[in-house]
Amino acid sequence: MLRRILVTFAALCALGAAGFAAWLGYRHLRPEPAATSSAAEEQLTAAATPDGKIIVGDRAQHNLGIVSKAIETGEFWRAVTVPGMIVDRPGMSDREVVASVEGVINRILHVPGDLVEPGESLFTLRLASESLQQSQAELFKTGENLKIAEARRERLAQAGEGIPQARLIEAESEIARLKVAAQGYRQELRNRGLSDEEIGGIERGKLLSELQVTAPPLVFAGEESPTGEMLGFELQELLVDLGQQVRAGEPLCRLANHQLLAIEGRAFRDETSKLQQSLEKGWPVEVDFQEGESSGWPTAENELPIRYIDNTIDPETRTFGFRLPLENQHRVVVQGGRARLLWRFRPGQKVLLRVRVERMDGVFTLPADAVVAEGAENYVFTQNVNTFQRVSVRVLHRDRDRVVLANDGALETYERDGKQRTIAAVTLTAAAQLNRMTKTKSDGLPPGYHIHADGSLHKNEDEGR
């Protein structure tokens, strides 16, 4: 029995030793793990193939922000760029409210930034004008005398033939004289800013000791008017203090309505013909408001017509001005019961104006980052998954934001909807970085990778085993 137990124990020990020896052998003979994908991708950022193409990994493309798409021909307007600034429309945007009579500021009903509607009260004036007080008294007195004269005429008319006709004519003449006098007093009070309702109260004996100063009506000059909702005024500046005595005609505040503005451009004399051509042919001017994409406002109309060209040149700057109409965008914010206006465009804001000069048809228009210049050559890059091919192109026009290319066959195209569209996707960004990669010394693909016919990069199946 003891012998059988010993034999079994010895057999188990032998099996354990054999298993341990096999495990050690496996660890010794197992190959080292393959390089990580991250390390491999680092080798792909500037890999060049023998035929001049470059291979860019997915992560490297993401880091470079590469965007590619097929492009098609279209029209492009060659333009000259001139500086501009948003300005008030003369005689329309700003309004001054003045005191119509002499008085003392008793109440100020609004503060700068408030939105006020036409006809809304702005100030309360305690009257200090003797002439106004006298006009009120004379109107009331004339009205009472008119009532007495009319009653007298009625009595004379009822007396019949026993009353001389001359007395009746005299009474009617007195009534006519009093009516003319009353009409003159009413007009004088209207000129001082009193409403018909207030004048009617004076005739009934309610003489005024205070006067309400209201916002003027909102009137736009000419045929110009906003296409959307008509807004009121914004109280831009207070010009008086509480308790201050003011004279007739003295400014009290300044109101502003920036719903309709203008853009004033400045051009030199040699650009006169270009501006006149745009005005005569009705070509709009493209406006660059120089705002970020995250401004949060709706898309604004950026092609505006020229409405006016100055006929004089500034002797100091040697430039002349021209104006474009601009309709503003707004938001109304209510805080503490007071409405506030937030305007998108403000007077003094700088803009760039592109005045059209020449129309180009059947050309490719790309962002400036899509084309790289190298000596006398210009290049774009076409993308096929991970493979990028440099293509020499002919540039017709270049400005700060865009480059115009000729459709001369350098990029293979096909016709679609009457336009020529490129077969390959053209890279719209990072052309300069891709061009530097073509200068990188490389023996082609990194070890362990291969490229498919569609241009995609793949790791060898046996790599890492």
From TrEMBL:
Any one GO BP annotation for this protein: plasma membrane copper ion transport
Entries under InterPro entries matching the protein: MFP_Cation_Efflux
Annotated region described as Disordered, given as residue ranges: 439-465
Coiled-coil ranges (or none): none
Keyword Repeat among record annotations: no
Listed Basic and acidic residues bias regions: 451-465
Keywords: Transport
GO CC annotation terms, alphabetical: cell envelope
Designated name of the protein: HlyD family secretion protein
Organism: Botrimarina mediterranea
